[in-house]
Amino acid sequence: MAQNKKQVEQITDMEADFAQWYTDVCKKAELIDYSSIKGMFIYRPYGYAIWENIQHLLDQQFKQAGHENVYLPMLIPESLLQKEKDHVEGFAPECAWVTYGGTDKLEERYCIRPTSETLFCEHYANIIHSHRDLPKLYNQWCSVLRWEKTSRPFLRHREFLWQEGHTMHATAEEAMEETERMFNIYAGFYKDVLAIPVDAVIVLGAGVNGETPSAALWSRIRAAENYLKKHPDVPVVLSGGQGPGEEITEAEAMRRSLRPGNNRFLLEERSANTAQNFAFSKALLEEYGLDTRTAVIAVVTNDFHCFRSRMIARKQGLNTVAVPAELPWWWLTGNYYLREAFAVVKTALLD
Asked: Which end of the chain has a smaller Cβ tally under 10 Å, C or N?
């Protein structure tokens, strides 16, 4: 017991210095240790096992999606980097250079890989001769080196473990489809494996009687309230315009009924259908500063509406998870489910 107390006392209080607390936890858990080179860490067995599990699980999904693993050199000639000046400019201050081979000075400097785009482009130029050689779906597991000025275990090293995928396609449409597919794989991995919390919440409106939320909207408000207790710091978009017979917008009705806590409420009051819910909410979140390309967004809607709402969100380029709101059995009718089924078909074929 005394030993355990001593170990805890050696960890900085999280409230006093969060960054140091994080570093202390990583060291005390024997995940990582410092090396003699500033900014370069040693992955201890527990720490490296985390990476092995990540690599194993993601590699399975990549291969199921048709990707093949390759390995390219860690050294990049300076002349090759110069061909991609615009791309490399951001990495230039962080590049480490090899200037000697043994005791002999090299005729050209070689950059230790900060990323591999230039090498992949050179390789693809050599092996792709026509559209019949496409697509090329290559993935690389490796390490990269960037001469960072500050470092933090697992988050920012000078040398860190790395995964990069580089693909070539016959059309821009195919390239975008592949990009969206990989975003979905990453987003699913963040949520389902790493248990990283969602980045934002969208609550979809569902009708107001005068100023009173409808039964469907009340069920969504209750589901949102329960969900936000577990996610108290994420931004929340309340999405819904004002229709016939509604004296206030659906968004305003939700705002009046929800307790904000620590959440930041963003009101989207223009939408008249689900597609507009997502389009206008996406714009609001981007104005708020969220990168919606990689964000995981929880969507609160009724259980019968979850499937179609996710279809529409995906077409808007959003990675979503459903937070289903249940309605009482007596409120639901077969006719309502039938209408929703037709709506799903329409969304899939026409929208």
From this structure: N
* 15: containing domain: 1-30
User: Cα dist. 89→81, 86, 93 in Å?
Assistant: 10, 5, 8
Residue 327 lies in a domain: yes
The percentage of residues in the chain with a pLDDT greater than 90, rounded to a whole number, is 56
d(CA 261, CA 151): 34
Q: What is the pTM of this model?
A: 0.61
Segment 240-284, tens digit of pLDDT = 999 988 999 999 999 999 976 666 899 999 999 999 999 999 999
Shared domain check, 24 and 48: no
Is there a contact between 50 and 31 (Cβ–Cβ < 8 Å)?
Answer: yes
Verify that 1 and 63 share a domain, yes or no: no
Over residues 192-203, the pLDDT tens digits come to: 788 777 889 999
Q: How many residues can be counted in the chain?
A: 351
CA 72 to each of CA 40, 59, 98, 112, 119: distance values in angstroms, whole numbers, following the listed order? 22, 17, 17, 12, 7
Question: Domain ends where: 141, 161, 192?
Answer: 192
Question: pLDDT digits over 81-103, tens only?
Answer: 888 776 666 677 889 999 999 99
